Amino acid sequence: MLRKIPAEMDKTTVASIDARLFAVASENCVSIPLAIESGSRAWGFPSPDSDYDCRFIFVRSERDYLALYPHRNVIETPLEGVFDVNGWDLAKALKLLLKGNAVVVEWLTSPIIYAADEWFRSEFTALAQRRLDRNLVAKHYLHLGERQRHAYFQDGKSFRLKKLFYALRPAAALRWLRQHPEHAVAPMHFQTLMAECDPPSAVAALIEKLIIQKAETRELGEGQLPPQIAAFIDGEFGAATQHFPQKPVPLSAEAIADAQAFFCEALRADPRSCCVPRIGCDSVVGGDSFGSAANVEA
Question: What kind of architecture, by CATH, is found in domain 2-132+250-290?
């Protein structure tokens, strides 16, 4: 089992997340071969009061996938205090990966790992490297960045300055992808991403200052979007629109077959050997494991 927890993370909070993961596996009869930290802690610019954004991928039993009424493809735990813990079914994660959703790859490359099955993470990453379409990834980042740009600082009014990172990071990822045509996945760690995409020196200096302030204070306060950063974000979104094809790309039969093969292999793996195992559920007859009303999609 892989586990990488930075020393500065609160041990009591990490233990509570571990407990939530085991409860999820037990209560939902799933195994969890990957559980990581996402969000600002994994990106490298947390605040003192940042939430713990644990994300996981889960696998149900083969019988559950054959149920007449499918189970939900997400599992969410209550948002309580600093805890934000939820996950996706492996099937959902694979389908989103083939559509260019960069979130899945970020989970696979997160530097903070609560628990990961080495075979699962290695094989899923290899699949992503083979089948991820960089044009679809760029489309994902462009859509994400433009949505954040319009939502928080389109009208020139003051906003919470920490929100600018939500548009800045997609812009930097798009710049990195343009500069690295042989790769489909930009670095998850924000400081690494900025260094490798070589932004204008004035932009780099201003961003570094904001990251330091964000790490030292619970709130950056409010303000208007700095002109240098506004120009950088808008310039990268415009360049991406010109550089990356925007037309829909049909999925290849080869990519679907490749993902299907990995899904079947992961499904047939012994759930008891998983880092967060499914134990004592397969013998249940009827009830939740067969898709009762509490656990199925409408």
Answer: 2-Layer Sandwich (3.30)
